[in-house]
Amino acid sequence: MSITVRRVLRTVVASCLAAAMTAAALQGAAAAAPQDTTTPAQDPFYTPPAPLPAGQPGDVIRSRSAVFTVDPINHSPYEGVKSWQVLYRSETVQGQPTAVSGTVLVPTKAWTGQGKRPLVSYAVGTRGLGDACAPSYTLTQGMDYEEFFIADALSRGWAVAVTDMEGLGTPGQHTYEVGGSQGKAVLNMARAAQRLPEAGLGGAPVGLWGYSQGGTSTGWAAELAKTYAPELDLKGVYAGGVPADLLAVAKNLDGSAFVGLMFMAAVGYDAAYSELDLEKYLNDRGRELLQKAESLCLVSVDGISTLAGTFFKKISDYTTSNPLDTPEWQQRLNANKLGSTAPSVPVFQAHAVYDEMVAFGQADTLHKAWCAKGANLTWKTYTLAEHATGMLWSEPDAMAFLSDRFAGKPVTGNCAA
């Protein structure tokens, strides 16, 4: 077995064990309450009315009570938390109205901190492209690998709103790693949580959280917030393991154990921009992979086996010509490259030095670009970490950063260091 494959397996095992142990530690005692296992594709809640009702981005189209659990066996409700699933208005990267699903979680215990209860709009990392990967579903099944981070935020008394993002849960293909779409979904999720009457979050101070794909999402939300959602009282942003420049990320992934992630991004861009026409570049092997990928969830038997089949493959193994070499694809990828605008609020950006999935260099370039534009940025690297452990190591620092922002403590960042 090669060193790289052993590292991949070790990373997966370590991450899963850490998630399981932390989730168990954070779970409170609760009576068993089996939860419905109907997936989003089978659940009419996720199908928006056609046409969408008139409204503004962030308006709630429909909502219902739900169960948040970290118990994958009995689905016991997590103690002391009220949960709702919502369908809300957002926008595509090209500004067209669309419906996105998500979850709103609020502690039942009264908030005793200063001001109103804070709200964290939480952007998850890579789940896959299939509707069954939607966090609003996996959080009801105790099967979400970030549930323990969410539970940590809830234990601090914060409300948490988790977007499924465009096309994950709802009809249509998930626009995976299309930053403009993901950033809007994160901001509109915060709006939807504040506009859900039962949640009682109107006017709440807002923080953003995201790692990996979620880092792209919160990075974009941070750049868009001042002009797209100026009414939000945004206090701070955590963006970790950020794929800021997908062309640079793709170059690093080609021929690696994680080339499947690059293929997922190609599917996401093809869904967002119909003129890209991914299929015309694919050979027979590529078309077969496309068919599998469109409904793939990473944390599943099919997902693991499909990705394992792509280990150490190259773009050329699946294509007749490389779409990334064309002006059309380069234009759309560059349009979703982070760094053109400085976030208007303090940002904590973190990255693992030995990140094998999301190249360190392009994240460092983002940090320098934001600093050059005058951002209030705290940049931290983790030397003894790769992608999954970078997520684990940065979690306490990110929680502390948002805690200080909600407490009104000043921060000057370390751009000048």
UniProtKB/TrEMBL annotation:
<dbReference type="InterPro" id="IPR005152">
    <property type="entry name" value="Lipase_secreted"/>
</dbReference>
<dbReference type="InterPro" id="IPR006311">
    <property type="entry name" value="TAT_signal"/>
</dbReference>
<feature type="signal peptide">
    <location>
        <begin position="1"/>
        <end position="32"/>
    </location>
</feature>
<keyword id="KW-0732">Signal</keyword>
<dbReference type="InterPro" id="IPR029058">
    <property type="entry name" value="AB_hydrolase_fold"/>
</dbReference>
<dbReference type="Pfam" id="PF03583">
    <property type="entry name" value="LIP"/>
</dbReference>
<protein>
    <submittedName>
        <fullName>Lipase family protein</fullName>
    </submittedName>
</protein>
